Records
---
Amino acid sequence: MAHITAKKYQAKLADDLCRKTHFSKPEVESLLRMFKKYIPGSANQPHTHHNSRMDRTKFRDVLHNSFDMTDDMLMDRIYRAFDTDSDGFVNMEEWVQGLSVFLRGTLDQQTQFCFAVFDLNQDGFISRDEMFQLLKNSLIKQPTEEDPDEGIKDLVEITLKKMDLDHDGRLSYQDYMEAVKNEPLLLEAFGPCLPSSWAKIAFLATFSEEC
């Protein structure tokens, strides 16, 4: 009986997610199957909102293995951006909806996503200190005689001059959105938080073949 209930739940979930995302129903079904494979011992359980949850370690494995991401700080922030109900786990709905933005999101959706990743303390702004942390974290560490922190501080000031449209010394979402609309390359100004084109194609191919 539980199996039938789980099957019905899965079918309804696939229908709902198909309407809410940039995926077709067969693609959603493939992503849900993929999600199940990542949950230890889940094959024998009926899948509901409560017992199908991916933890941070498994999610980071997916980001690393499927999208070649290696930056610990950004992977942690991406995990939090996927975890929209802030319960410390990524459930099936969050998995599909997050991947929809991550892989096929509109510029507006990806702008919101990247801003959420870069807003480290979630206060609605990207501060000078957050820019410094993000840039220091993502720039390649090269041995140099100069103080690398000074170079990063200069970069923060250059970035603020370009993106801080209301000149208050920090980036609001409005500042960031307008700057990205004018120059889309600024979307990942503080580090890579979206998959590269080749990683996106490779990942989509893994489940599109099933459809």
---
Amino acid sequence: MFIALVLEGLTVLQSPAALRASPGETVTLSCSFENTQGSVAKATWTIAPGVVLDSAHPFYSGRLRMSHLDLLQKGEATLTLSELELRDSGLYQCHISIHRGESGTGAGTELLVTGRNQSDTGAPGGRELCQDSGPLVYRAVISLSLVVLVSLGIILSLRPWNGVPVDTVVGAGSEPRRHRGRCL
């Protein structure tokens, strides 16, 4: 579905309007515009609130690709974002400037990066939930084990000790041997 937003004279259609993805996935956002004369065009992509995306920025290093000049001359622009992270979620807008003075902005694509894979309807798939629950179970078991160990350590350190003193030569908790005139 394309959504158009006419702000400065040039109609820019952007798709999709909304997109859900999982961390680690790759998405491609598109916009199209009238460039009948094949003029030089420039596409700038922003994420709300108007932050310009820059592939040289350390956060996007190696993860961001924008369309080439030949595609822009045909009236199309794309943004590909790979290795998605949760913080990549937001409203992405395509801003187009054509050499002959026209410019326009797309209505935007709302990208939602979620912790699990979901279909376009938003209904979670059965298999994806099972795959995501594995690490969660392990974390819960490890956390519970640590709580038990720490609790045991605290209980043992607070309990008064009524045992036999430890003698490193003889051994812990044992009575010293009596030797009757014999040398060992």
---
Amino acid sequence: MAEATVAEIAETNTNTAAAEDMDLETAPAQNPDEAQNGDANSKRAREEEEESGGDAKKTKVVEEKSAEEQRLEKLGEGESEAGRVILGPKSFGSAVEMFDYFYKLLHYWPTDLNINKYEYLVLLDLLKKGHSEPDKKIGGGIQAFQVRFHPLYRSRCYFLVREDGASDDFSFRKCVDHILPLPENMKAHADANKALGGGKGGGGRGSWRGRGRGRSRN
């Protein structure tokens, strides 16, 4: 009896193991097409996510660029940045600083030589924002600025050369004073010559009038 029971238990275990093996063998295998489609869907989802992130970055860059362009446009219209006056690529904190810049350029730049591009932009903006009649002065356009000895005032003076070849002088002092008022002793009048140490004729900071002959420069 015991031997029969043991045999029955062994047979039962064998049948159970066989059934489990059969279940494992008959488990449905994953369709290769479905696996491929799953990988493709996952890849597409990642690409869409990356594209979405890229669009967000592009939008941010465009917004930042737009803000920067607006700032530069405002500066180009003459608005000051942190209280400074913008002339071309350069900024000034006071009328005296502006005056000193143009005065030094006037006296250090060689005569009858075109001023470089950087100072050209500064001088052009000075005319546009500081001259009483900029459109008339600029005319059809300015191709160059030069420092020349003025035939009447016997001193160095800024000259503009228009596109048609015609040239004309202008007073940087008046332009500066129009943008930001200069101290009284630096304004364009005869007493400024003595106050700023100018001598007869040219050379001194206040000697733009020379001996007072002829018309005043504009």
---
Amino acid sequence: MRLNEEVELQGRLVALVPYGAGHVPRYHQWMKSEELQKLTASEPLTLEQEYQMQRSWREDADKCTFIVLDKLRWASGLYTEEDCMVGDVNLFFTDPEDTTVAEIEIMIAGVTKLGIKKFQAKINLENTISIAMFQNFHFKEVSISDIFQEVTLWLTVDNCRRKWLLEQTNHIEEKWYSQRLEEAIGKIHLPAD
């Protein structure tokens, strides 16, 4: 999604950055895990397919994704961004008639900029850890699909929940991601010709 292509969100322990081509090799390694494929209902992809998928995530208006970085490692400057990757966060805008509803894979503060009023999580029925995590975030079960072997959970963002989310995330700092890249490039000392 173009809306987040230059947005970096910094929390206390993690930073969320746009999913870029430089993240694909590590992401591709993760997705080779059969267990991870099963838990995320994903099919194995070739590296080239993974690059195509990354471009789709960047270009499509109905998807928004961030890579989650270990902020402490990243801020140290001792590790590459790829070495700091610890996960990802995805939003899918599944209803073109109602862009205030987004399917989510992990809880984030997506309420203010994107205007989300309902988060929807679809989780494999065997992934009890993820189901419990979302229930701890006050998501409520709305349906179970025997065909897809998944449960659908919703979190409606009413005014009370919106206020709570904003209070819980008021420490998050939003920056322009391209500025971060420029800062990193500025720290690189190239040998003189």
